[in-house]
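tool_call: predict_structure(chain=1)
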Amino acid sequence: MDVLTDIMLFLMATGLVAAIAVVAWSTILTVRNRIKSGKNGEDKTLRRVALSIVVGTLIVLLLAILLSSADALSINGKPYDNALWLRLADVFTISAGILLVVAVLSLLLDWGKSFRIKS
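tool_result:
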């Protein structure tokens, strides 16, 4: 039974690393292609947007890491005190919550623009 768990953890870690690599590669190619195809004034704007996305993501992750806790849990009556996995679970839930709040605020701001009086 432990062998299957180890295989599953290895596959999950490999999939995570592969997904991060594909996202990074795709992002780099997309930004390069847009910068090359853009006009002179758009180059700086696209770089600024790309940089703000990267910095914003890092800020969300840093904030989630700082807010996470590694307090022990009782699962099915047994104590679970693996600090790494407890902290990672907290980081995941906190960052998901922050990104959901940002998404809802973005939708509300965009929705509010449609009610402005056009002159």
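agent: The first helix runs from residue 2 to 37. Proceeding to next step.
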